[in-house]
Design brief:
Elements: H1 3-13, H2 15-22, H3 29-38, E1 44-48, H4 54-62, E2 67-72, H5 75-84, E3 89-92, E4 105-111, H6 119-132, E5 133-143, E6 152-155, E7 161-164, H7 175-181, E8 184-192, E9 204-211
Parallel strand pairs: 1-2, 1-4, 2-3, 4-5
Antiparallel strand pairs: 5-9, 6-7, 8-9
Helix pairs in contact: 3-4, 6-7
């Protein structure tokens, strides 16, 4: 089994615990609000690696007009998300194979999904998201910070093994370079506080990038 699928199995087993730790966390509300303010009325939003619906619950409360689809590889996470945000739609799906056709989404969200993708998968995810976004569409990313050389298997709070990858923002092999190559311009970027109840304390960050308009 590939590392991402193996990690998804762990999250499926720990879905309720994850929900209890992070569902009501308001540390990231300012970043979600930035995205909400950038979206047009009735915008179509794809939530990749949606977990128990943490981001969806916040944004749909503020913007009930949004057309929201969340996908997650852990079936139990999807069940929890459906219960938490009945006004949105959630499906079991792999963020490495996003639904939709080119130019079909106004925004794509991936909140703390990148740490469970190897570098080549994370780069491919960003390129895929860029293709699926409409011109001017937004990509919201948040991830755990750390040195790439520290990536690898980590034990969850229950002792299960998950594979975690640290992706830097800067540098020729960083997320910023991947965004630029995919035709996405960073609009805002900032560090994020790490939750005090996180199993491992990390230097987290987020960014919102916008798809460039086509060349005339």
């Amino acid at each position: 089994m590939d590392p991402s699928a193996a990690s998804a199995r762990v999250f499926d087993q720990l879905a309720e615990l994850y929900q209890s730790k992070y569902m009501d966390l308001d540390l990231y509300d300012e970043t979600y609000a930035r995205l909400a303010h950038a979206l047009r009325a009735g915008a179509r939003v794809l939530d990749a690696a949606c977990g128990p619906g943490t981001v969806a619950r916040r944004l749909m409360a503020w913007r009930p007009d949004l057309q929201w689809l969340g996908v997650d590889l852990a079936p139990r996470m999807v069940e929890l998300a459906r219960a938490a945000v009945p006004s949105a739609r959630f499906e079991v799906g792999d963020c490495r194979a996003l639904p939709g056709v080119d130019g079909s989404w106004d925004a794509i969200v991936c909140a703390f999904g990148l740490p469970y993708l190897e570098p080549r998968e994370a780069e491919a995810f960003i390129a895929q998201a860029a293709r699926l976004l409409k011109p001017g569409g937004c990509l919201y990313l948040s991830t755990q910070g750390g040195r790439p050389e520290d990536s690898g298997p980590q034990r969850s709070s229950r002792g299960d093994i998950v594979h975690v990858y640290f992706h830097p923002m800067d540098g020729p092999a960083g997320v910023g370079a991947w965004l630029d190559a995919a035709g996405l311009d960073v609009q805002t970027q900032a560090p994020l506080p790490c939750p005090v109840n996180a199993t491992v304390q990390t230097s987290d960050w987020y960014c919102i990038a916008r798809k460039r308009p086509p060349r005339v």
